[in-house]
Structures are given as C-alpha cells and as structure tokens.
C-alpha cells in the first residue's frame, strides 16, 4: 500500500521532477518509481530548478546559515555554493541556457538584486 506523501516547490524538466520534502531536495521520474534524495542536510531548502539539459539542479539552502544558492550534478557529486548574499529571500529563478543560472534576492539585507551566474 502506498503511503500519502507531500512535496513542495516542484519543478519539471522533460521526464524528471525535482521537489523539496523533509528539508531536502529530491528527484523522481515522471513515469513513476522511487524518489531519490539529492541532499541530506536536514536544513530548509526551496526552489529547486533543473537545468535545460536536465543534468544539473540548483536550489536555495540554509546549509551554511542564511539562504544561499547551490548547484550540483543531478547524477551525484558535491554541491557548489554560488551566492554569499546572506539574505533569506535568495533563490534560483531559472536557467538561461545550460550554463547560466538566474538568481534573485529581494530582502532587506541584500536589497533587490538579480544576477546571472555562469555555472
């Protein structure tokens, strides 16, 4: 018997779904099957975004304090931190091609800013 679950911040690309649950980022195939945890930090995360080619995922995490944006290969490997803004409203907005990630913050500390990061 399948147990009901929850997910937040879903993002689709092709046949892949990324989402947040239990304070981590997860991935699952849209065709059905088992979801896999991509992070194991047990800290608040949000806004996962798959790259257009489906090989990388970016998300916001409190891994090292305030929300910052990280990126990692979808098939494993360490995450790389992209921002050091110190603002809890920092988040990835989406990708511009496979190698540029658009990131925004609109909180009182960082002010309003939007950046494009080459990844």
TrEMBL record:
Keywords: Cytoplasm, Hydrolase, Protease, Serine protease. GO terms for cellular component: cytoplasm. Gene3D superfamilies: Tricorn protease N-terminal domain. Its main location: cytoplasm. GO terms for molecular function: serine-type peptidase activity. It holds the Pfam family Tricorn_N. GO terms for biological process: proteolysis. This is Protease. The keyword DNA damage does not apply. Signal peptide: none annotated. Belongs to the peptidase S41B family. It is found in: Cytoplasm.
